[in-house]
Amino acid sequence: MSWYDWLLGIDRRWIFLTIAIAVVIPFFAPLGLPVVVTPPVQNLYDAVEALEPDGKPLLLSIDYTPATSPELEPMSSGVLRHAFRKDIPVIVMTLHPAGYGMAESAILAAAEEFGKEYGEDYVFLGFQPGTSAVILGLGVNIRTVFPEDAYGTPLSELPVMEGIRNYDDVSLLITFAGWSAAEAWIYYAHQPSGQIVGAGVTAVMATDYYPYLDAGQLVGLLGGMRGAAEYERLIDRPDAGARGMDSQSVIHLIIILLIVLGNAAYFASRRARRLAQARGEI
Amino acid sequence: MRRQLPLALCFIFGVFTAIQYYVPHFRVQWFQERLLQWLMTLLAFAFLLGTVSLIKVHYHKLRDRAPDRGFSLVVFAGLFTMIGLGFIHPDHHAPGSPFNQMFLNVQVPIEATMFSLLAFYVASAAFRAFRARTLEATLLLIAAAIVMLGRVPIGDLISPKIPEATRWILEVPNLTAKRGVMIGVGLGMMATALKIMLGIERAWMGGSD
């Protein structure tokens, strides 16, 4: 059997095993590859950095589900840590029913780390169905959309919500989404109300958001685990994003190698077949 | 009347929702606020509708002894376990509650695992199917390789030109193509919305016309 036939007929379970090993090993033996910050991430960091301590709150919409949490959870944790470190009041909500648990675990972990008090420094509004209606409703009156927080406390009893009526009273809005929620925020919050919007999305979705970045409809963008790693570098707090970068680097290299090997075998096989045809062997 | 009333309501509310953007009068905004509340209430019923539909589909599979009915049993087990756990604990979302434990320790790892499987299939598919057969496929392959390297730190180490090339690909050809597609989609959405509001497109009412 020729090398290219062997390569083209290789059992795909060997590829799966190679990928598994490549993912796991860097977690035990980190390569410590340096992460260079890109402009979309720097812009989002600068937007949060420019917010006034104890000023208008930052609205975070944690719209991801467990499926995309490995990519998006490091982003939300990074932004929450940044906000809490700067004493910026935070309002957290979600547009996805499965986002409730994700949002709650992210905010509780960050609040505990920085000793923040619920109701005073941050609030969790929970989930409301109806993506576009919810976003438009927040632009009119937050209290008609969320009369109570996620735990049944009326918003009027929460000091952090004092004087907060609509987008005019929110400094910056950042959504973390593994679906089209970020577009909905741009269409229904940025366009009608002029709300400044930033986004954190999965790596495969990031390319869709460059037109919004270029048009100034997004103030900044975190794309995939790389975006999270860059943000962690900016806040000088390496965590899950930075840890994942080593594995992702190795995996990307292996995929490129597999593409090259696959093409080399394919063209060698095609050439051999043509030569055999020319000789009249097949 | 069964046709005219929904068509009239669609036209009135469609036109109102479009023009309220340009009328900042408080009465118009008050009505818009009410409309949004109605919409959210209506959409909440979609969850109920979805659950009833899910139960019906899987009940029929079990009743008809469909070959893959085992999966329906798994659906019912998951659905009713989570509903039950939600009801038995007074504060079902509280950290440490059975509902919360099931969500964090069962649903989160299962969904994350399913999504992670993509990495394995992408690697296998890249090896078997990503071929430079044509000029277009070759260009796509080269662009993919550059972006894959440029989006990870090892790309910076190999050469600073790789992240620069990645940025150019994302901000020039990618942006241009996406913008063209988005403008087309936007115009299509506007045309469809107008057709629905004017009663030209009536598929949403059910029936053949």
Strand and helix layout:
The complex is a heterodimer of chains A (282) and B (209).
Chain A (H helix, E strand, L loop, with lengths): L2 H6 L3 H17 L10 H11 L8 E6 L5 H17 L4 E5 L4 H16 L7 E6 L3 H10 L1 H4 L26 E6 L3 H13 L3 E5 L1 H4 L3 H5 L6 E3 H11 L5 H39 L4
Parallel strand pairs in A: 1-2, 1-4, 2-3, 4-5, 5-6
Chain B lengths: L3 H16 L6 H38 L5 H20 L9 H32 L5 H16 L2 H6 L2 H37 L12
Cα end-to-end separation of chain B:
16 Å
Largest binding interface between chains: A-B, 68 and 60 residues
* Count of all domains of chain A: 2
State which percent range the strand residues of chain B make up.
under 5%
Supply the number of helical segments of chain A: 12
Describe the structure.
Chain A folds into 2 domains: 3-30 and 246-278; 39-238, Rossmann fold, CATH 3.40.50. Chain A is 54% helix and 11% strand. Chain A contains 12 helices and 6 strands. Chain A has a 6-stranded parallel sheet with strand order 3-2-1-4-5-6, with helices on both faces. In chain A, α8 links the parallel β4 and β5. In chain A, α2 (12-28) packs antiparallel against α12 and α4 packs parallel to α5. Chain A is elongated, with a radius of gyration of 24 Å. The two termini of chain A are 17 Å apart. Chain B has 7 helices and no strands. Chain B has helices at 4-19, 26-63, 69-88, 98-129, 135-150, 153-158, 161-197. The longest helix of chain B has 38 residues, at 26-63. The mean pLDDT of chain B is 89. The interface between A and B is large, with 68 and 60 residues.
